[in-house]
Amino acid sequence: MTADTIQPAVAPGEDASLLIVDDDKPFLTRLARAMEGRGFAVETAESVEEAVAKAKARPPAYAVVDMRLGDGNGLDVVAAIREKRADSRTVILTGYGNIATAVTAVKLGAIDYLSKPADADDVVAALTRTGSEPIAPPENPMSADRVRWEHIQRVYEMCDRNVSETARRLNMHRRTLQRILAKRAPR
């Protein structure tokens, strides 16, 4: 798709302010450029501290926030945006997707949760989707290993990220759980 065939994502006159928060500088730069090409007025931040300051100074109409940042959790940014602007539409991006953090993100006000790598079209679709539009079923549903991993992550989050308590509730050895938690999510 060329730049002249990209349709603006927001209507003329509509607040198109967008805050993108990610500590991966090349990804941040590419996404910011792509979103500007789709009609958004983009501001970027590379840390929780910087993003919260920008959100408090000028709360954006839209936000794309990475879950794990160098200085903390992207959910803190979502909460700060929501506190200043309840109608803001925020999407969480992460390379470490799991159901528990997705639920937490939605409870804090995020409207969607996308796994990296997400392209600009996916982000625009998530930001501009209305509640009445159905979400297409996944092309590749989760494997059994992934479902198990998601369950472990959910229990881990419910236990306030306490490894010993999570292991006890899952009836599993603590070291086994630690090894599982240290690995990336299965596909």
Structural description of this entry:
It is elongated and about 55 Å long. It has two domains: 3-128, Rossmann fold; 144-182, Arc Repressor Mutant, subunit A. The strands form two sheets. Strands 2-1-3-6-7 form a five-stranded parallel beta sheet, sandwiched between helices. A two-stranded antiparallel ribbon has the order 4-5. Helix 1 links the parallel strand 1 and strand 2. Helix 2 packs parallel to helix 3 and helix 7 crosses helix 8. The chain has helices at 25-36, 48-57, 74-84, 99-107, 120-128, 144-158, 163-170, 174-182, and strands spanning 17-21, 41-45, 62-66, 68-69, 72-73, 89-94, 110-115. It is of the alpha/beta class.
